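Explain this fold:

***
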Amino acid sequence: MWLFLASDCLFFGSFIAAYLLYRGRSVVGPYPADLFDIPFTSVSAFILLMSSVTMVLALAAIQRGNVRNMRIWLFTTAILGTLFIAGQVFEFTEFNHEGLSLSTNLFGTTFFVLTGFHGAHVTVGVLILLSLFVVSMRGGIQQKDSLAIELAGLYWHFV
């Protein structure tokens, strides 16, 4: 798991570096300052941050042997992740209506590739969380199985 997370950090690090390098070099608009809705983006980031808190609570619950609370917090984490993805879809749609696409300019390309891969990672994380939730509903996760929740949590925190 740690090797995968390290490779993911390098993967995203290269995209972030490309984004930072090219974000101000657009010779045609729309420009980032014309598009970003900072309050909306802040709420979206806060939702994802709070999902890390609920993931910690899910792990703490299963480590105490409280499967019921683990399910509640696991499902809450998945819901928050889904809300984040919905916000990202909304933003992508708005940006597209404003004229920004993958082919508009370098900013559009780096922005959509970076945030698209991030959204894909969040989607995979939500699917993992929902899978663990379903397995737990069928009685397949007990306190002794907390490693599965911990590994899902590691992935989620890196998302």
Q: What stands out?
A: The mean pLDDT is 90. The domain at 2-21+40-158 is CATH 1.20.120.80 (Four Helix Bundle (Hemerythrin (Met), subunit A)). The CA atoms of residues 128 and 152 lie 7 Å apart. The chain has six helices and no strands.
